[in-house]
Amino acid sequence: MKLKYIGLAAILLIAQTVIGIAQTKSSIGYTLTGTVKGIANGEVVLNEYNAKTRMSTKVNTGKLRNGKFVMKGKLSGPKMMSLSFKPGNWGTQIFMENAAISVKVDTAGAQHYDYTKYGSDKGAMLKNVKVTGSTSHADFIGYEIKTKGGKGKEEIFNAQLNYIRPFIAKNPSSVAGIYMLSNHYMFNSGIPLTDLEKLMVTFSGAAKESVYFSNIMQDIDERRAVLPGNYAEDFTLLQGDSTKFTLSSTRGKYVMIDFWASWCKPCREAIPHWKEVYAKYKDKGFEIVSVTNDSRWNDWIKAMDVEQMPWIQTIDEFPVKNMPARVVSKYKHGTIPLYVLLDKEGKILVKSGNEEDIDHKLAEIFKN
């Protein structure tokens, strides 16, 4: 009997030890220790930026004393953050994670900027920064080093994908991996949807739980929603005389939504062509609805006075500061001009930046 009790006690002791270790590991946060050359005393701020909302959230603050600081906290998972030092607004990026991380900063050689005339701030991007202790940071720096040096956008994008694909295949749960793809996608939103979907199914674990994964998945859902065959989302916008126009009022006609802007050179160069198309098909049940991406009303009015477009003219809305216009952003194209051809019921037939794609479909529709 005593042996049974001893055995039971041993099992309980082992179980408690395992639980204690698990609790200790789960309670570990981060300790960020830093030294700064060029700033003796001031404030250190750690911010998290969400590219989807374009908003920054303050995560932690600390005091800089005699060029040194320490920050402690806990994260839900690895995240790319900005670290800034004041006075002077000196900034850098650091991939934070729950670990003991050290950063050494030298303000010498920093790149200064001043965006105050655009309603933003001024400061300096630090160039002399060394981070140790963060596996995610080391992985991302490796990616940046290996993918720099391309001569053009296409070459850079190809180099990035050629690095990302094997990296995430080998490290599917890496948050640094999904961040690499998120960073790439931010500047290459034209990547084919099927290619992006294939990359996304690779991820697992912490990578799938990250905001970078959920942001891309949301974008994929939004891109699927505007594929040909889907109904175009209805919208109401102002016309030049300040009256309201609603897209669904054109039901019963084939409609091309023309996303353009007064400052867009290729948009304006295409106008003579669309005048010819409009004259050819307007009496056969065809309409054009132009939606300008101008944020300044007067610029739009002046352009319309010059171009004399004989179809419906509306102006997009910018309800959230520093965010894309409301209607055009729904179509996930990234650039203008963008042309969206709808059938009589309001379903999307063609979504393209090329005039020829619209021309071919219209010729097919009105061939009789």
Automatic annotation (TrEMBL):
Chain ranges of the Thioredoxin domain: 226-368
* Source domain of life: Bacteria
Where is it localised?
Answer: Cell envelope
Q: Its GO CC terms?
A: cell envelope
The record, for Pfam families, names: AhpC-TSA, DUF4369
Record GO terms (molecular function):
antioxidant activity; isomerase activity; oxidoreductase activity
Any one Gene Ontology biological process term? cytochrome complex assembly
The alphabetized UniProt keywords are: Cytochrome c-type biogenesis, Disulfide bond, Isomerase, Redox-active center
- Which InterPro entries does this UniProt record tie to the protein? AhpC/TSA (IPR000866), DUF4369 (IPR025380), Thioredoxin-like_sf (IPR036249), Thioredoxin_domain (IPR013766), Thioredoxin_ResA/DsbE_sf (IPR050553)
List the SUPFAM superfamilies hit by this protein, alphabetically.
Answer: Thioredoxin-like
State whether keyword Transcription regulation applies. no
Is Kinase one of the keywords UniProt gives this record?
A: no
Protein name, per record: Thiol-disulfide isomerase or thioredoxin
Instruction: Please name the source species.
Output: Pedobacter nyackensis
